[in-house]
Specification:
The complex is a heterodimer.
Chain A lengths: L1 H37 L1 H12 E6 L6 E2 L6 E13 L10 H13 L3 H8 L6 E7 L1 H13 L6 E10 L7 H4 L11 H5 L1 H5 L3 E6 L12 E4 L6 E4 L3 H18 L5 E7 L5 E7 L12 H35 L3 H13 L5 H24 L2 H4 L9 H11 L7 E4 L2 E2 L9 E2 L8 E4 H6 L3 H22 L26 H8 L8 H12 L3 E3 L4 E5 L5 E4 L4 E4 L3 H17 L13 E8 L1 H10 L7 E9 L6 E8 L8 H19 L8 H6 L1 E3 L8 H10 L3 E5 L13 E3 L5 E3 L3 E5 L8 E3 L8 H11 L2 E6 L4 E5 L6 E3 L3 E7 L10
Parallel strand pairs in A: 2-8, 23-26, 28-31
Antiparallel strand pairs in A: 1-6, 2-3, 3-4, 3-5, 6-7, 8-16, 9-10, 9-21, 11-14, 12-13, 15-18, 16-17, 19-20, 20-21, 22-25, 24-26, 27-30, 29-31
Helix pairs in contact in A: 3-4, 3-5, 9-21, 10-11, 10-12, 14-16, 14-19, 16-17
Chain B lengths: L3 H11 L1 H12 L1 H11 L12 H30 L4 H21 L6 H25 L16 E3 L3 E3 L1 H20 L6 H4 L1 H16 L3 H18 L3 H21 L2 H12 L11 H13 L24 H33 L4 H25 L17 H19 L7
Antiparallel strand pairs in B: 1-2
Classes of the chains: A alpha+beta, B mainly alpha.
């Protein structure tokens, strides 16, 4: 019995043991295989992830250089963010008070605010962002003096600087607080400029402290690439100076833009939109803009009030004419239900309108008009119509047409289109005359000769139907009639540059094609992207997209435009010696006007005035387009309002860009010359040398004998000054006295003759620029300035006659 | 009864001396006592000596356990106690004392426990009651500290701290082994084979469950049931009582908050995406450690998870660090050591001189075997997280002392086992 019981114990025990070992350990081993072998790698990575703490290293944003590669247009510099770690501030020893005192004094922040922050239950509280390194050093030194151990943190950060302020601001754009590009090149090339963030990876224990073993991985931040622009700061500054002067002169409401482009490569040397901003402080509005905001808000409020009045008047009118009782009741009910704005509602509305106007004004100052706005190119477009007509063979240089002051379609219900000159018109014209007269009927004639398909093909070829693809953000597309919708009247108006809207960038690209032998170039503003070592990461595409017109046609049109700029409607853009080929443009903003007329019957028609051209005509190098939107002062005219600034820009940038002046004999005659240096010579030698050079002379301040032996003490004008070729050099033998000075007269507004008379009276010499016709516009030295007798004053004339106005 | 003959034959073949000694005991007590006197202090000889493979297994497990405890507790001890040696030094002292105690107790004839079983049981129950009295009732924190809302420990003058439930386990095993060996064939009856056992188990379990110590309750119940089953209690009584017990247990487990219990089950099934309010941090960190080990381990001392990620890595979750540092291969070796330990413990017990030795040895072997299996199950998230220490590995001086003392009892049994001991 005992035996059987024992054997039972054996069996049961062995069964239980086997079950325990197989089941228990079997399941456990199975699970170990699952966790360690099957999912081991995944779990190991997760475990590592939780123990590895990664600290991000901010890369330095790339620098933007101008074309010279030496001038920095945008650069990032290290700044510091001041923050508090309230948990490590020793309040018992009064560190909080000391910190609040130091920080409030140094950072110009409120003492109480800092003190309050120092008591917050947190590990990180911002105090001030982006302070300079020297200020940071000073604060740290002061904190050390005060014996403050911890609690103030200085976190490295970057700030963007734009050393040239407003220069090229709409091109460069600006960055946000986290260094991200928000406008302009900063946005377009954000990825390139940003670089790649680096990391410090270190192992931490469960409490976030460093592990005792050595595990640290350092991945260096890769700084952003630098941009080297095609834009040249010198050219840009010249363009901006004159563009601004022109803006002030014509008071263009909707701003202005100017673009300088290399006609062969499409490289943009300058691009300016005035009414721009300082990218160092992009959110601030110009004071005059800010001042105008309350008025704008008021206007909107008045408009709303007026609308309310009108609605009320209408309701009262309905009540008065109501006949039946029900109608009367209904009208009364409507009147009673009518809600008039309360004072609070009005002030709320004013605030809302003010905010709206504010953000509109900000957007306006950031807007790059050259790519984001479209306009009717007007007569500037005539160079394309002429080019297309010649290239297609529809017309030759000998093609002639007689302008009678209007183009009659000979179609029922279609009004004739008038030429700007009015009846009796330009008379018989060749193609060259048609362009230089800016004759609208002639262009319509050319358009009809080509027909809509050929015209549209060229329109397309010149790039007016596609975005240029320039490397700037916010480029808008053009508005035009496609070939199948191009009716006879649409063809007619498009022929002379009305009724379709293109961007200034498209127009200047087209001008480049006319200039460079017919090639449509790729406009671009970044020449190359380089890394920190100076290796080129990417270069601009400078190849052309297609050939639009032949070299011969290009040369023929250039000749016509040269003639136009030299002697005809475009001569305000003329610069002696630089063979300018150009065309003026004045176009009506018809669509906008018609829209406004619906609201206000008295709305005035607004204009766009422009001047587009290139130089030198014998070997075109640089194209320039100057464009003012809605000029308010004077008669709207591309010739008078854009031309002079076109000329002023060209005159300054062409010598800088290495284009040598070449004068025609006629120009040479009128040319100003530089005065030679006579100081130190005897009067006798000076007389002889001046006469040989073609100048006249006078001796001032000496009545004694032996005049010729006296040394020249000084001369007026001083050596190197530009004076007329036959001008006078006054030689002084002694120091100048009061009597040797004179006051500059006011030449502005005078005719050439009057100017000469005034100059004679005041004993100064004149250098005339511009056509010499019409009235003086500007003078080089302000009226009333005291200058030495014989000094040279440059007076510029702008031709007001022979200015075309657009018609439609 | 069908293979009665075979069973007898096997029994005869395997333990011929047992029967003989049984006969000798009844026939010639004085001779036996003399023989025992002679062999008592012969530590390592065949026959009267202790079982060398078992001693070797115990010392191996103890050594590996100490090394791993040092490695696992290194960072935790450093950060919270200022010295990396804090745990291993204490555990080492207890291990030395424990080994001495084990060797001493191995010379103590286990038959004396027949007489000691009632006093030991009384002490165990008294200690359990003391926990409840000084704990939830009187809240004397100096004696019964409150740990995470549970009272399980008795602290004596900050020198010795132990869980009375550990004592209760041994007391229960002893009591059951005694009763079963005394009852003999009467185990098949309800009155003798069921009632007293469930009465005793009810007292112990009742006291332990009042400590909110579910894992100890489960282990105690499991050992009790196994011993009864082996001892000859009829299977059908288990079915009835297992049903009642299961119901009661689930009632206890789920009584407080069923949805919370469900959430915990969810947290167990998918510890990486636990439901709201369920903290699976420890399990997740354990699995991270196990996974990090992969096949060959990160190398001893190289664990990353012990750096305050895995909470208290020196306690219940030490096996996770073993897995991380020694890899699957190392974990497998440790598991094999435990398996060998169980096998050898069972082998010794089955060859014990009498049924009391068999049942006492099995009880002790199963207690630590089950604890090891359950601990590894918890660490590998095979079963839901519950507090079970890994014998020989987990930190706990008094527990180690008790473990080694019980090993001494097992070795004492081995002295009288008829087996090859070298």
């Amino acid at each position: 019995m005992a035996g059987s019981q024992n054997s039972k114990i054996w069996k049961k025990t062995i069964a239980i043991t086997v079950i325990l070992l197989v089941l228990g350990f079997g399941v456990v081993i199975g699970n170990l295989v699952r966790w360690q072998i099957v999912r081991g790698e995944e779990l190991r990575m997760d475990a590592e992830d939780q123990s590895l703490q990664s600290t991000s290293l901010t890369p330095m944003r790339g620098t933007i250089y101008d074309a010279t590669g030496t001038k920095i247009l945008a650069q990032s510099a290290t700044v510091w963010t001041v923050a508090l770690d309230p948990q490590s501030i020793d309040v018992d020893s009064g560190d909080d008070v000391a910190i609040a005192r130091v920080l409030s004094e140094e950072l110009d922040v409120d003492y109480e605010t800092v003190l309050e922050k120092s008591h917050q239950n947190s590990y990180f509280v911002y105090v001030k962002r982006k302070i300079e390194t020297d200020l940071r050093d000073r604060i740290l030194a002061r904190l050390e003096e005060e014996g403050i151990g911890g609690g103030v943190m200085m976190v490295e950060d970057y700030k963007r600087y734009y050393p040239y302020g407003t220069t090229a601001s709409t091109v460069l754009g600006f960055t946000g607080t986290d260094g991200q590009g928000l406008a302009g090149l900063e946005t377009y090339y954000d990825d390139e400029l940003t670089g790649t963030a680096g990391r410090i990876v270190s192992a931490k224990n469960g409490l976030g402290n460093d592990m005792p073993f050595d595990y640290e991985q350092y991945i260096q931040a890769q700084n952003g690439y630098d941009l080297i622009l095609t834009l040249d700061e010198t050219v840009q500054s010249i363009v901006e100076k004159h563009l601004q002067a022109g803006l002030e002169a014509c008071g263009a409401l909707e701003g202005c833009t100017a673009i300088v482009m290399n006609v062969h490569t499409g490289a943009i040397l300058a691009l300016s939109t005035k009414g721009d901003y300082d990218p160092n402080d992009p959110f601030t509005l110009a004071p005059e803009v800010l001042e105008a905001l309350p008025e704008k808000a008021d206007e909107a409020v008045q408009k709303a009030l007026k609308k309310e009045e009108e609605e009320l008047a209408l309701l009262e009118f309905y009540r008065d004419i109501a006949i039946s009782e029900t109608e009367k009741k209904e009208a009364d009910a409507n009147l009673r239900a009518f809600h008039r704005m309360t004072a609070e509602e009005i002030s709320a509305l004013r605030e809302e309108e003010y905010d709206k106007a504010y953000s509109e004004a900000q957007n306006k100052q950031w807007r790059n008009k050259a790519v984001s706005d479209t306009y009717y190119p007007g007569s500037v477009f005539k160079m394309f119509t002429a080019s297309a007509a010649l290239e297609s063979g529809a017309a030759t240089l000998d093609t002639s047409y007689t302008c009678v002051g209007q183009w009659d379609f000979n179609l029922p219900n279609v009004d004739p289109i008038e030429c700007w000159v009015g009846p009796p018109g330009h008379g018989a014209e060749t193609l060259s005359d048609g362009v230089t007269n800016s004759c609208n009927p002639f262009m319509i004639y050319l358009g009809q000769l080509m027909g809509k398909d050929i015209f549209y093909n060229f329109f397309e070829s010149f790039g007016f139907t596609e975005r240029t693809g320039v490397d700037l953000p916010g480029e808008t597309g053009s508005i035009y009639y496609s070939a199948d919708r191009l009716g006879v009247t649409e063809l007619a108006t498009e022929s002379f540059g009305q009724n379709f809207a293109v961007t200034p960038m498209q127009v200047i690209t087209g001008i480049c094609a006319v200039a460079n032998g017919g090639y449509l170039v790729q406009p671009h503003i970044v020449d190359r992207v380089i890394d920190a070592e100076g290796n080129i990461v990417r270069s601009a595409e400078t190849g052309y997209k297609r050939q639009v017109i032949s070299k011969e046609v290009s040369e023929e049109v250039t000749k016509i435009l040269l003639k136009n700029a030299t002697s005809e409607s475009g001569k305000n853009g003329y610069v002696p010696g630089f063979r300018i080929a150009g065309k003026t443009g004045t176009s009506e903003k018809i669509a906008k006007w018609e829209q406004e007329k619906l609201e206000n019957p008295d709305a005035e028609k607004q204009y766009v005035v422009s001047y587009g051209g290139y130089a030198p005509a014998d070997d075109p190098q640089y194209a320039l387009l100057v464009f003012y939107d809605e000029p308010q002062i004077g008669t709207p005219s591309g010739g008078t309002q854009a031309g002079p600034y076109f000329a002023a820009i060209m005159k300054e940038i062409l010598p800088y860009l290495g284009v040598d002046a070449k004068y025609t004999p006629e120009e040479f005659e009128n040319l100003a010359a530089s005065t030679p240096n006579m100081i130190g010579r005897t009067i006798g030698e000076a007389k002889q040398l001046l006469e040989e050079a073609g100048f006249s002379w006078s001796v001032v301040g000496y009545d004694g004998d032996n005049e010729d032996a006296q040394p020249v003490y000084t001369q007026v004008p001083t050596p190197g000054t530009e004076i007329p070729k036959d001008g006078n050099v006054a030689l002084f033998v002694a120091e100048l006295t009061d009597e040797d000075y004179t006051e500059v007269p006011d030449f502005v507004g005078c005719s050439l003759g009057d100017c000469e008379y005034l100059a004679g009276l005041s004993d100064v010499q004149l250098v005339i620029t511009g056509s010499g016709e019409g009235y003086a516009q500007t003078q080089s030295i302000d009226k009333g300035t005291r200058v030495k007798r014989g000094s040279v004053i440059t007076v510029s004339f702008v031709n007001n006659s022979n200015v075309e106005t657009a018609t439609d | 009864m069908s293979d009665n003959t075979r069973g007898v034959a096997r029994g005869l073949r395997r333990i011929p001396r047992q029967r003989q000694t049984g006969v000798v005991t009844t026939m010639d007590g004085k001779r036996l006592v003399r023989r025992l006197e002679r062999t008592r202090f012969t530590l390592f000889s065949r026959g009267g000596g202790i079982d060398m493979p078992m001693l070797f297994l115990i010392l191996t497990l103890l050594s590996v356990g100490l090394v791993m405890l040092f490695s696992a507790s290194y960072a935790f001890a450093y950060y919270y106690y200022g010295s990396s040696y804090f745990f291993v030094a204490r555990q080492g002292v207890f291990a030395l004392v424990g080994v001495a105690a084990m060797l001493f107790l191995s010379t103590f004839d286990y038959h004396h426990y027949h007489k000691l079983n009632v006093p030991i049981f009384g002490v165990a129950v008294g200690l359990l009651a003391a926990v409840l009295i000084f704990g939830p009732l009187l809240k004397v924190d100096a004696i019964v500290p409150n740990r995470n809302g549970a009272y399980r420990w008795i602290n004596l003058f900050n020198i010795i701290e132990f869980q009375p439930s550990e004592v209760a386990k041994f007391a229960l095993i002893l009591m059951f082994a005694h009763l079963i060996s005394v009852n003999g064939p009467k185990m098949a009856t309800f009155r003798q084979g069921v009632v007293p056992f469930f009465g005793i188990l009810g007292i112990v379990d009742g006291l332990v469950i009042l400590e909110k110590h579910v894992s100890a309750t489960l282990i105690i119940s499991l050992i009790a049931v196994l011993l009864m089953f082996i001892g000859g209690t009829k299977l059908r009584y288990f079915l009835i009582i297992a049903g009642i017990g299961g119901l009661a247990l689930s009632a206890i487990i789920f009584s407080q908050n069923f949805s919370y219990a469900m959430a915990r089950v969810q947290g167990w099934l998918d510890p990486f995406n636990p439901p709201e309010g369920v903290d699976t941090w420890q399990t997740v960190q354990s699995l991270y450690a196990i996974g990090s080990g992969q096949l060959l381990g990160v190398g001893i001392g190289q664990s990353r998870q012990k750096y305050l990620y895995l909470p208290e890595p020196q306690n219940d979750f030490i096996f996770a660090i073993v897995c991380e540092e020694l890899g699957f291969i190392g974990a497998l070796i440790v598991i094999i050591l435990f398996a060998l330990f169980i096998w050898r413990g069972v082998y010794i017990s089955l060859h014990a001189r009498d049924r009391f030795g068999t049942l006492l040895g099995l009880g002790i072997t199963f207690q630590f075997g089950i604890q090891a299996i359950l601990n590894i199950c918890v660490v590998t998230n095979t079963i839901p997280n519950t507090g079970i220490a890994l014998p020989f590995f987990s930190y706990g001086g008094t527990a180690l002392l008790m473990l080694l003392a019980e090993m001494g009892v097992l070795l004492s049994i081995s002295r009288h086992s008829v087996i090859e001991k070298t």
